[in-house]
Amino acid sequence: MQKKKPNVREMVLRNGISFPSDEELVMLLLGSGTKQMPVGRLATRVIAAIDDSNPENRIESLQKIQGIGQTKALVISAALELGRRKNAHLSAVIEKPSDIVPYVQHYAMQPKEHFISATINGARELLNIRVISIGTINRTLIHPREIFADAVAERASGIICCHNHPYGPCLPSQADCESTEALREASEILGISFLDHIIITRDTYFSFLEHGLLSERQKE
User: Fold this and answer.
1) Tell me: the pLDDT tens digits for 39-54?
2) Whole-angstrom Cα distance, residue 25 to residue 215?
3) pTM, entire model
């Protein structure tokens, strides 16, 4: 008996979201085609329309494709816009560690602590922003190996760590100071610069570097 060919959903679940082609990603968004237009062919036409249009006229261009109505055009456009927003930080130049704040400020809205690591290359370009761990309303547990693993894999020259304070003042706790020191010591061993540890709240941020807490420790 001939084996059933796995569909796109099965392949993605098995191999990850980075596995499919552009057309297959669009097939996931569309879900199905029409009698006259199979989903694979429809996806190919959607990709062509995306390549030939700009954000301001994309919905209109998509709706000109047979089989793409207003709802599907909105879904595709929304997915593209979300991807653009989530990846707007890529290759951004970080002149000073606090330049990272606009790219992580939205985590301040979270009700639990999120510990975030941002990797930087030798040209001071932002490589990636990752959530390392999520804790309770006032604490998240971290370990240097979890933070530096991706930095090593990406051959990053430096990292900036951030976490949010859902409640209370934007000031470091004793645990924050201790974890910062542990990260600084790990960075020296690995040869990856620990550029800053930034605490964010809805209204402001606290930088260990700007308050002299990193430099003072390094001089000891």
Assistant:
1) 999 999 999 999 888 8
2) 47
3) 0.71
